[in-house]
């Protein structure tokens, strides 16, 4: 695969994942009380923390998704600032999105092991129950994110 | 101009900044939720918001509480309709209930649901927080069933009260 094709593929993947997180965050932000109920159904957090997570997690998804998208849009742009802004945004956003995805997979695994049959509250395109499908989907997402992050770290600020 | 490398420290600082921004925005936009959580009123707030949303979304759908649902069941006045997925229904359901899982809701006017449309139906789903009973009750009304009620406590409330449940189809 030539360098320009690779670059195109990575940009599409990054933009797609950024957009996906923004979309998932917006869905939850627009229905905060339903999202709080979805978190409660997992029976993992005390009441005192459920509201804090329901309020902030959608914004974390939106902020990190938007930063990742912006990082790919700024790719190759030169600024008077010597810090490569595009790379910095991509790496920090990918780090946050990776942490969120790891958290989601862990929560799904714990919930599945406990045998709870609840909606995953993922905020994507359809209602899904916690199960192997949702876990595999998140594991795939984690793999792609890890690949993009590794590539960014290897570049160390250079635009590959 | 020579490019500065992106270091771990710089990356972590930016990630921390983004996290902080998300927390500030979340608190700003959803302060009532945060406040209720901190004061220990979250359950009350969620009940109230759920009620408000349902009144708008499911206007005209009549509901039953646990005592009314049990009385209706004892008097055999209505057919109980389980709106949960087939595997949940097979595991345990209200005795005598029929299953109408979500994937069949598009065919309510046809085959399986060809029954007396004047018959009283009591629809339930898994628990108080699920909307499926109300969704199905609304769809059944639209499909021509005139006496449809939603038992909002759901199977969990029924089961916790120790009322009859079984695994037969």
Chain-wise SSE layout:
The complex is a heterodimer of chains A (160) and B (169).
Chain A (H helix, E strand, L loop, with lengths): L2 H28 L1 H10 L5 H27 L11 H29 L18 H24 L5
Chain B lengths: L7 H22 L1 H9 L2 H16 L4 E3 L1 H9 L4 E4 L3 H6 L1 E2 L3 E2 L21 E4 L7 H11 L5 E4 L2 H7 L4 E2 L3
Parallel strand pairs in B: 1-6, 2-4, 2-5, 5-6
Antiparallel strand pairs in B: 3-7
Description:
The complex is a heterodimer of chains A (160) and B (169). Chain A has 160 residues and is an all-alpha fold. Chain A has one domain. Helix content of chain A is 74%, strand content 0%. Chain A contains five helices and no strands. With 169 residues, chain B is α/β, with parallel strands linked by helices. Chain B folds into two domains: 8-55, no CATH class; 57-166, Oxidized Rhodanese, domain 1. Chain B is 47% helix and 12% strand. Chain B has helices at residues 8-29, 31-39, 42-57, 66-74, 86-91, 132-142, 154-160, and strands at residues 62-64, 79-82, 93-94, 98-99, 121-124, 148-151, 165-166. In chain B, the strands form two sheets. In chain B, strands 1-6-5-2-4 form a five-stranded parallel β-sheet. In chain B, strands 3-7 form a two-stranded antiparallel sheet. The longest helix of chain B has 22 residues, at 8-29. In chain B, 30% of the residues are buried. Classes of the chains: A mainly alpha (160), B alpha/beta (169). Chain A binds chain B through residues 29, 32-34, 36-37, 40-41, 47-52, 54-60, 62-64, 67, 80, 82-84, 87-89, 91-93, 95-96, 117, 129, 156-158, and chain B through 1-6, 10-12, 14-15, 17-19, 21-23, 25-27, 29-31, 33-38, 40, 42-43, 45-46, 49-50, 53, 85, 88, 126, 129.
Entry summary:
The complex is a heterodimer of chains A (about 160) and B (about 170). By secondary structure, chain A is an all-alpha fold. Chain A has helices at about 5-30, 30-40, 45-75, 85-115, 130-155.
Name the descriptors.
heterodimer, A: 160 residues, mainly alpha, B: 169 residues, Oxidized Rhodanese, domain 1, five-stranded parallel β-sheet, two-stranded antiparallel ribbon
